[in-house]
Amino acid sequence: MAREPSERHDSAGDFAAALDDYIAASLVGRADPRVERVATTLAVLALAFVVFASVMVWRHGPGLAALGVGAWGFVGLTVVGLVFSLIEWRTQQRHGLSRLALATAAATLLLGVAQAFTGLGIVLAAVSEQMSTPTVDVPPNQLLLLGTHEAMGNISPAAVLTALQLVAWALLTRRGPTT
Question: What is the dihedral of CA 117, 122, 123, 128, to 10 degrees?
Fold first, then answer.
């Protein structure tokens, strides 16, 4: 309570609001260790799930050899993105590489989509050629089906590697730099 009447609260409601503001301000910045443990555990579980999904996609989907040289671009971008995130974590985000890590994740996905559409274009050109001058033993509908399946096979690995980068980035950079 202030000594001077002019410095006192006009009503109990004003006093309660001031008390709420004081309590809210005193709680800002405090991290509950239990919340930190739960968040870290869930983030590690999410990362483990993404790694498991990556293994399943690579095991049951087409291999790198079947996807072609461009698939190594997925792997390369993933490694670069993970290294950016790791550097950010180790240096407590001093180098500002988070945007680059996120950009490599986006580039991984976009590369997969671009490769899929490029493959579809090649398949459609081959089907068109086969329909106009049948020279191959494969009927056009089977060529279209197999080619589309092969071309679309680029999206799954690119998506899983993108998810791996994003979850790793979120886990490694979830805390801001310490000052």
Answer: 130
